[in-house]
Recover the amino acids of this structure.
């Protein structure tokens, strides 16, 4: 081990009459530890939020959607074959969606609670786009949407049996409407209510299952039915959105595939990818992550200023020793290296403690869901965490560099001391 490192380590262990210097060094070390700890935990949580929200959004938001630019319904068979021929696309399926009013039923069969919802009519058979929906099902199956079931309903005060198509409802919406499995519900197209001349368009469905995605926005609004029954309800709805949805091998290829599909489909079609549909959300998360990094880095910067103060006092206290070292033949660069080693040592020890504690804390928060959140406000029920090595390495490198830079001024001061002047007057 070089003598500069040994002397630097010794200078941090102050003598009894210089105990104050040692206390300042410990405060600097604690500042670096606290700063890197908070910074690593924050980056892990922000990365978790970003990735978790992206996964949850893409569970019900297709990575690519193709609609008519004029909003009309179109025969998508030919276009679907062309899309399936693109190597990056693994699945294509038609869909229909619109806002609806959902009406629950009481135990007597009469209408019950009412809530707004979003109807998504999808193709059930041979649909690999809905893989994430299958994963979130708490009860029932997608195959149940293709069939009808005999259910007792009440019409004009009389109970009768009716064959109703199945529906899968978000868990929060079902709770709001008081729905259970095998309960009938009525879906009403709001556009038909504006037409006072005719009867409102409505259709009965029977609840065959619930899904729980963990995102309140979806769990409190989405209703899935089979494509043919959705079209039967929404045929005259001006808010109807009809098109194709596609899933990709790699979600990050979406912008490139969108450009390719736009060129192939022509101007009469509107192509949207998931980065456009949720651009404000992901942009704000990215900006917030960067802002948090810069703000919390100020904690490490404050600790770095403490290191400057500590090393300046060490230089003042060790003037005689520095002069003797220079007189014995030590080079000026070696004297500067002593104090650079002190700054680096404080940075390495503090960073190791802080990053290590941050890693352990982040791991425990993510594994055991230690911090819970109201799902209706934050869209997730527990704080998500993602442990990316790059985040921890970045924090460690920046913190150590700040500590080394903080030691530059004291090192240059020590380097510029004249041994003749110090020995003469002290």
């Amino acid at each position: 081990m070089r003598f500069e490192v040994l002397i630097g380590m010794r200078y941090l262990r102050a003598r009894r009459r210089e105990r104050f210097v040692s206390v300042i060094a410990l405060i600097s070390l604690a500042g670096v530890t606290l700063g890197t700890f908070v910074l690593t935990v924050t980056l892990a949580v922000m990365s978790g939020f970003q990735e978790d929200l992206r996964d949850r959004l893409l569970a019900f938001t297709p990575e690519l959607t193709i609609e008519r630019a004029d909003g009309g319904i179109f025969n998508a068979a030919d276009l679907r074959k062309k899309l399936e021929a693109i190597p990056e696309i693994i699945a294509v399926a038609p869909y229909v969606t619109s806002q609806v009013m959902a009406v629950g039923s009481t135990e007597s069969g009469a209408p019950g609670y009412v809530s707004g919802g979003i109807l998504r009519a999808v193709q059930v058979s041979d649909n690999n786009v809905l893989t994430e929906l299958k994963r979130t099902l708490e009860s029932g199956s997608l195959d149940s949407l293709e069939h009808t079931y005999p259910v007792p309903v009440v019409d004009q005060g009389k109970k009768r049996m009716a064959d109703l198509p199945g529906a899968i409802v978000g868990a929060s919406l079902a709770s709001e409407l008081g729905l259970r499995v095998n309960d009938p519900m009525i879906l009403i197209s709001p556009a038909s209510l504006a037409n006072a001349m005719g009867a409102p368009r409505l259709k009965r469905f029977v609840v065959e299952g619930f899904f729980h995605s963990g995102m309140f926005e979806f769990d409190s609004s989405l209703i899935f039915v089979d494509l043919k029954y959705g079209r039967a309800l929404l045929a005259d709805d001006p808010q109807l959105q009809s098109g194709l949805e596609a899933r990709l091998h790699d979600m990050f290829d979406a912008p490139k595939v969108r450009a390719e599909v736009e060129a192939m489909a022509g101007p009469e079609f509107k192509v949207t990818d998931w980065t456009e549909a949720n651009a404000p959300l992901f942009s704000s998360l990215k900006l917030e992550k960067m802002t948090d990094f810069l703000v919390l880095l100020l904690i490490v910067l404050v600790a770095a200023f403490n290191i400057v103060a500590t090393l300046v006092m060490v230089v003042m206290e060790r003037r005689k020793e520095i002069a003797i070292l220079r007189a014995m033949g030590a080079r000026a660069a070696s004297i500067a290296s002593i104090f650079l080693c002190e700054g680096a040592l404080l940075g390495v020890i503090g960073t190791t403690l802080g990053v290590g504690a941050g890693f352990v804390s982040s791991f425990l928060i993510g594994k055991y869901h230690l911090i819970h959140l109201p799902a209706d406000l934050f869209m997730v029920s527990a704080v998500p965490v993602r442990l990316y090595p790059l985040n921890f390495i970045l924090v460690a490198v920046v913190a150590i560099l700040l500590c080394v830079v903080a030691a530059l001024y004291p090192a240059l001061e020590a380097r510029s001391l004249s041994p003749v002047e110090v020995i003469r007057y002290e």
